[in-house]
């Protein structure tokens, strides 16, 4: 064993060395490793002797090594270890143009290795087995790389991206598919930007999804469609905004990023079911065509219908064929032929399909619907029921989850948790969920007069005009509960005093019911008006008069109510107050302009009623008012 002097020497020699190595600027900077799986496509093609584009072996990687924007030769020579020789390295961060404020892994060099497939394929030649090969390679190299880029032809890129999104289970790293419309080494090419952007995103950002990078946008792969054969903006994502945009700044919509729930490890599912198909409806499609299409071994069909998911409901022949197929276990998904929008069952023609066992595919693209079917159907251990259930479910952010409007929740902190639990995966969905939850949350906050909570909800995008399932807004509730400062706050934020709930109740009526005078005044000042029908108002007044509820009479009065309003029998509150001998009501009504001369349908005035009842005190009160009135007339006041 070493003696103490030896140990001391060892420590004194080692310590400064260790400290030095941590601080030495000549040490390699941290790196991100990206694996580029090069499958083919225009991006790496060359014109052949016949003057047409063709992929060429080893052409891409050798050429890239000569381009400084793709490979920092000097750095590679001085820094790469022996086993890193086949890597390329991007220029230092100062030259990458990454200016986003957050989210990326700062200061990393992006190293990448290109794994070239043999043969390289035009993507039109790809098969489902090629998706399996890509998925397997992703799995095999998953632990050794930070991110992945798949160079791919554009023609079937949306299919591959959709398929990979399902095949990659519990994905935790970025996978980006890209390609180009013009080969990367032509003078004009979209390939350089697309590839460089993909390397940067895959190397520096953790967006654990299968994405497509094209034309300075990062789109969720299973939402994409190749939409333009000739444009650099070849892909669209019609039902979901880009996850990220690469402009002067790189902006990532982090709230839209889909994250696999759970704690399971990454794995891939490679044996996709090939017995699937796309069937596009057209007017006059024959039953034989549909029947033929649905014949075994067909296991799953994506039915592209009209508009919001409609097919003829006057064709029992057709519907029967679909029903028969569904009954024997063929899974049929209904998606729209429209590029944008989703399938709903708001038309009888759409409902008829649903009744035939066809599953609503929401806003899935044809590519996503087809590959989802292929994925789900290949799960051999799943029952048919489970497969149908999973087809309906949002598995990888491929469809928009519409939150049910009547969700209620009491805890403000739960919104994000709920969003996660529902696999909410896009800004659109989060907005929908928020719209469903916020009104209830705002009403709950208003109930307790919690202005801070209201302000928090507002800052998170809450809209004070939104109402809960009973049509009630935060203002209704605050008015009913009598929280003056909350009402003030809400009015200040533009909450409407005119909105009516499902029962036609306005915030003003709520304040009257709650007998909150200062709130009534505040609402009146803001332009609120009493919206009750005259006879309904009269009945309210009569009731209050009969119950000697002076506060309610006062509240109505402050809200501008005419105290002489008549009910069905043309009776006023004063008639009722007299007949019920509620002296305080009579007093209040007389003091506030109630007329003792109005006749009901029986020809009686309030004074007549008092005389009939021989209510002396009341007669006196009325007569006193009569005298005051005649004096005032004489004095001209
Ligand atoms: N732009 C392209 O990549 C088109 C090519 N035909 C392909 O899909 O491989």
From TrEMBL:
What's the protein called, per UniProt?
Answer: asparaginase
Residues the record marks as active site: 42, 154
Origin species, per record, is Crassostrea virginica (Eastern oyster)
Give me the gene this protein comes from: LOC111129002
Keyword Aminoacyl-tRNA synthetase among UniProt keywords: no
Specify the domain of life of the species encoding this protein: Eukaryota
Write down the InterPro entries for this protein, in alphabetical order: Ankyrin_rpt, Ankyrin_rpt-contain_sf, AsnA_fam, Asp/glu_Ase-like_sf, Asparaginase/glutaminase-like, Asparaginase/glutaminase_AS1, Asparaginase/glutaminase_AS2, Asparaginase_C
Task: Show where the L-asparaginase N-terminal domain sits.
Answer: 33-256
Alphabetized SMART domains for the sequence: ANK (SM00248), Asparaginase (SM00870)
Q: Extract one GO BP annotation from the record.
A: asparagine metabolic process
Family in the record:
In the N-terminal section; belongs to the asparaginase 1 family.
What SUPFAM superfamilies would the database entry show? Ankyrin repeat, Glutaminase/Asparaginase
Q: Which CDD domains has this protein been placed in?
A: L-asparaginase_I
């Amino acid at each position: 064993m070493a003696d103490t002097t030896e140990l001391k020497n060892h420590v004194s020699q080692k310590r400064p060395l260790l400290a030095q190595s941590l601080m030495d600027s000549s040490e390699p900077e941290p790196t991100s490793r990206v694996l580029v799986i090069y499958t083919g496509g225009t991006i790496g093609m060359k014109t052949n002797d016949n003057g047409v584009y063709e992929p060429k072996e080893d052409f891409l990687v050798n050429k890239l090594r000569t381009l400084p924007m793709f490979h920092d030769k000097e750095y590679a020579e001085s820094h790469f270890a022996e086993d890193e020789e086949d890597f390329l390295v991007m220029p230092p961060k100062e030259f990458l143009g990454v200016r986003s404020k957050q989210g990326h892994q700062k200061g990393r060099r992006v190293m990448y290795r290109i794994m070239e497939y043999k043969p390289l394929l035009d993507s039109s030649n790809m098969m489902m087995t090629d998706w399996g090969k890509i998925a397997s390679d992703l799995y095999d190299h998953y632990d050794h790389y930070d991110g992945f880029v798949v160079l791919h032809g554009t023609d079937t890129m949306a299919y591959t991206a959709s398929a990979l999104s399902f095949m990659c289970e519990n994905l935790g790293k970025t996978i980006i598919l890209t390609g180009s419309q013009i080969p990367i080494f032509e003078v004009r090419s979209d390939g350089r930007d697309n590839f460089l952007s993909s390397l940067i995103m895959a190397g520096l950002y953790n967006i654990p999804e299968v994405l497509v990078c094209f034309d300075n946008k990062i789109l969720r792969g299973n939402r994409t469609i190749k939409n333009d054969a000739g444009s650099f903006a070849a892909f669209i994502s019609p039902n979901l905004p880009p996850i990220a945009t690469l402009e002067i700044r790189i902006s990532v919509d982090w709230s839209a990023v889909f994250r696999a729930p759970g704690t399971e490890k990454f794995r891939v599912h490679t044996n996709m079911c090939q017995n699937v198909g796309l069937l596009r409806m057209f007017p006059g499609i024959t039953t034989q065509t549909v029947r033929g299409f649905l014949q075994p071994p067909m296991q799953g069909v994506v039915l592209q219908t009209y508009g919001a998911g409609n097919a003829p409901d006057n064709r029992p022949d057709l519907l029967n064929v679909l029903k028969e197929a569904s009954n024997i276990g063929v899974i049929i998904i209904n998606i729209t032929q429209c590029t944008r929008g989703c399938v709903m069952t708001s038309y009888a023609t759409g409902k008829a399909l649903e009744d035939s066992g066809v599953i609503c595919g929401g806003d899935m693209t044809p590519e996503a619907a087809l590959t989802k079917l292929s994925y789900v159907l290949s799960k051999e251990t799943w029952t048919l029921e489970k497969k149908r259930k999973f087809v309906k479910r949002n598995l990888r952010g491929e469809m928009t989850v519409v939150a049910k409007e009547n969700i209620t929740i009491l805890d403000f902190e739960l919104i994000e948790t709920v969003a996660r639990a529902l696999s909410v995966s896009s800004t659109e969905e989060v907005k929908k969920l928020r719209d469903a939850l916020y009104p209830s949350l705002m009403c709950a906050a208003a109930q307790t007069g919690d202005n801070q909570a209201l302000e928090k909800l507002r800052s998170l995008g809450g809209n004070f005009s939104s109402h809960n399932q009973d049509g009630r807004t935060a203002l209704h509730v605050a008015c009913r509960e009598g929280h003056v400062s909350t009402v003030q706050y809400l009015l200040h934020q533009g909450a409407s005093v005119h909105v009516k709930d499902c029962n036609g109740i306005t915030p003003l009526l709520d304040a009257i019911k709650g007998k909150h005078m200062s709130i009534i005044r505040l609402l009146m000042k803001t332009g609120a008006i009493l919206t009750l029908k005259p006879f309904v108002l009269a009945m309210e007044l009569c009731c209050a008069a009969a119950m000697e509820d002076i506060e309610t009479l006062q509240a109505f009065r402050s809200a501008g109510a005419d105290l002489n309003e008549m009910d069905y029998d043309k009776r006023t509150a004063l008639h009722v107050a007299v007949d019920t001998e509620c002296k305080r009501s009579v007093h209040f009504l007389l003091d506030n302009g109630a007329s003792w001369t109005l006749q009901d349908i029986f020809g009686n005035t309030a004074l007549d009623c008092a005389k009939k009842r021989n209510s002396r005190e009341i007669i006196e009160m009325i007569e006193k008012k009569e005298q005051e009135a005649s004096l005032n007339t004489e004095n001209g006041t």
